[in-house]
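Q: My collaborator sent me two sequences in one message, no labels, and asked for predicted structures for both. Can we handle them in order? The first one she listed is below.
A: Yes, handling them in the order given. First sequence, followed by its structure tokens:
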Amino acid sequence: MRFLPCADQGLLVGTGSLDEALALYRALEESPPPGVEDLIPAARTVLLRLAPGADPARVEQAVRGLEPGEARAGTGELVRIPVVYDGEDLPGVAELTGLPVREVVRLHTSTTWTVAFGGFAPGFGYLVGGPAELTVPRRAESRTRVPAGAVGLAGEFSGVYPRPSPGGWQLIGRTELEMWREDRTPPALLRPGVRVRFEEAGQP
């Protein structure tokens, strides 16, 4: 692990892989060292936000003493997301994977995904735990505008765009479920640890 100071009250812990970062995040969630106020996981890092006056050296020592073990599936609430599978890239994903379109849909809906971390835009959750067959590259050229609710794949991740934005993920469907609402507590529907099941909402 690598430790880097972050601003005035942060400590960034770097790991070697996504699994290591998630395992560390789960271990810190279960047993946060004194002085740690918040945890923010990412693909290969975990950011620790420290309380005023906390000693970063003591926090680092405590983190080094943890035994994270293996990353586990999320145990948070289960969110069901209805999806119409009519995405522009669905035929291309089928071609990339060598699977029929209906099998791509079946695989996407047949497993429980877990929100590993958030990023890119408020309410965007990076979902892991899907079938290895659905691992596909990002598009060679990003779109200048992806609509809110678009459901996509990129690498080992799946995700739902919370608002219109540029993006390079392979779009396989869409949902009307809102990922981010400022009048909701918490605003983000998909938060680290939340489990997700995609459900086919209708035929295109």
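Q: And the one she listed second?
A: Here it is, processed independently of the first:
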Amino acid sequence: MACATTYMTLCYEDKNIPPFFLGNGFEVPDKRPGATIEILRKLQSNVRTVRFKFVRKPWQRCLNDIQKNKVDAVIASYRSERDKFLNFPRNAQGSVDESLAISMLGTCLVGQQGLGQDVANNNYPLSLAIPRGYSVLHVLQQDLYRVIQTDSQDDAYQLVLKGLVDGSLGLCQVYDEQVAGFPYSETLDPIFPPIDISYGYLALSEAFLQQNPEVAQTLWRGLGAMPLHEYYLDYIKNPVEHKIPRY
């Protein structure tokens, strides 16, 4: 007897955010859609009873829709306030299971020559241009950084290149490998160690988890068995456009 197919709608941001998602607008690219979408397509081929439908919306719309059970899943980092409406993979102790994350990425300060010396000499506060919505904003100490929020990722880096701010944030580590996963890496330098290590998860709605608990566990375990770092490294080493990743 054939198993029933489970259809699930996953909402992700409508902006170009390499290496996770490529392209702007509502269209989901067929080719080179971003590492995260390629991972999910591969997961779908591994778990043949699940079919994803991808929809693209502004990030806040995705969060609003999953709270109302209008979509089944998003890709999100864990925060305690999201426990109210998102379900993350858990271990036997009830903690979020990092081994089942869909990504593990490090974020560094990025700037022109001299930023590293400023950090080494504790020349704070530093001015940072950061796009609105960066989850890493909550880890920045207010006494060390003066944050200028921008409308886009490109706007933030343009301020750095013009010398109007000291730096920004950029992807500098994929799992255990150091990378220069940010634009203008021939001009700008990352400052190690990362100021934040971020885990991204396939996070599910309340309704989907209640109706499909076994499917949820199968998907999370499937992600834990995949060589996820290879997908992100491919997009970083073979970039399509010069943009910075955001999570």
